[in-house]
Specification:
Thiol Ester Dehydrase, Chain A, 6-stranded antiparallel sheet, 121 residues, alpha+beta, 2 helices
């Protein structure tokens, strides 16, 4: 995974990658929290988009997000979460990924996301 400020600033790290699949983990720190002391929705969403983006790039192509949505199922008060991105469609110009955000301390899915990418090469 290419290093960049967004990934580093949010404590995201690549755990595993194969074609069409990526797993990232993130440490939740004070800067990751909302005013209610739970993981901020934008922090969670960013992790989902980043995991799906790495999985999209695993096909050897450059891609940009064209659509993304997320369902927040549980508030996250844990110190570490994981994103698992799986390709559900890989076409000529569009790819689609399902992403589960897992609360590692509670061992449950805390959010689900679907991210669509457009290949730009």
């Amino acid at each position: 995974m290419k290093s960049n400020g967004f990934i580093e600033n949010n404590n995201y790290r690549l755990v595993y990658e194969e074609q069409g699949y990526a797993v990232l983990e993130a440490d939740i720190t004070e800067t990751s929290l909302n005013p209610f002391n739970t993981a901020h929705g934008g922090f969670i969403f960013g992790l989902a988009d980043t995991a799906a983006g790495i999985a999209a790039h695993s096909f050897g192509r450059n891609a940009m997000t064209v659509n993304a949505n997320i369902e927040y199922l549980h508030a996250i008060t844990s110190k570490k979460i994981k994103a698992e991105a799986k390709c559900i469609k890989n076409g000529k110009t569009i790819s689609v990924f399902d992403v589960d955000i897992i609360d590692l301390e509670r061992d449950r899915v805390a959010a689900k996301s679907t991210v669509t990418y457009f290949y730009i090469d």
